[in-house]
Amino acid sequence: MKKIILAFDGLKYSESTRDYGMYLAAQTKTHLVGVFMDDPTYTSYKVYELLTNDGLSPQKLKKMEEKDKATRQAAATDFEKKCQQNKLEFTIHHDRSIAIHELKHESIYADLLVIDAKETLTHYTEKIPTRFIRDLLGDVQCPAIVVPEKYKPIKKIVLLYDGEPSSVHAIKMFSYLLPQLKHLETEIISVKPINKSLHMPDNKLMKEFMKRHYPNAKYTILKGFAEDEIVAYLKKDQPHTMVVLGAYRRGAVSRWFRESMADILMKEVKLPLFIAHNK
Questions:
Q1: CATH C-level class of 3-147
Q2: Cα(33)–Cα(90) distance, rounded to whole angstroms?
Q3: Cα gap 111→29, rounded to integer Å
């Protein structure tokens, strides 16, 4: 891996994105790019805050614009300072167009994207997963790590496997991009219906594949509904775990009517999620 991009809202700067990104860059000796989404249509203030009895106040507008500019600059300065302190190679991009389009375009030329699960690029707080994150993950052009609000060092990797090509693809991409994390405790989890055997789908082929990539991995087979069992399992004393999964990419209509596993995990567990989908 050669390039990680970290997506930042400079008005609501995510230290978690910064810290996870710097941890990964330090492990992999990778160039970091801080992408600051300075979308001109997005500000910290609302139009009604600029109104007076005489209408829109140019003085208030100028003051608010200067405040936003200073806030964004402070965020970029913090990122630069922390990279220098940690002796990391880095670049800063200020994307000054529509944020979601710019970030998707940036992802074409990146090996990995890191972003905070709570990013909205709006004035208001949204429930996780936000519309911005759902839109981004539906069409991102590289694997992404969606991180929780608070950084915690990674000590364990959980690989979710359901027998579908997308789950194997995600495990492959994680192995290729982050081989430096293979020394960590690794567990592969599958969920089977109550009336089925405890064998994984394509058991022989999958174990043959895993033997070459994660020979020391532990295997766990759960019984029941995948969404319920995986969430319950991950909530049990696993605060330093990164979860690897695929299968995010579906049609826009499908995403409105049925949540993906990634949506559910973002909402239910506060863990970093490595998400990769095959086109």
A1: alpha beta
A2: 6
A3: 13
User: Hey, what are 249's tokens?
Assistant: 């990419």
The domain locations on the chain are 3-147, 156-275
Q: Identify the residue with better confidence: 244 or 59.
A: 244
Q: In this structure, are residues 187 and 157 in contact, taking their beta carbons and an 8 Å threshold?
A: yes
> Which of 42-56, 185-199, 200-214, 216-230 bottoms out in mean pLDDT, i.e. has the lowest?
42-56
Farthest CA pair distance, the chain: 75
In sign, the C-alpha dihedral spanning 215, 265, 246, 221 is positive
Report domain 156-275's class: alpha beta
How many CA atoms are closer than 13 Å to the CA of 29, on its beta-carbon side? 2
- Note whether 167 and 247 are within 8 A (CB): yes
Quick: pLDDT tens for 151-163.
Answer: 999 999 999 999 8
What is the pTM assigned to this prediction? Answer: 0.92
For residue 218, the Cα-to-chain-centroid distance in whole angstroms is: 25
3-147 against 156-275: fold identical: yes
Instruction: Give the separation between CA 196 and CA 205, rounded to whole angstroms.
Output: 19
H or E segment and range at residue 95: strand 90-95
Structure tokens at 182: 């293979």
One-letter identity of residue 52: T
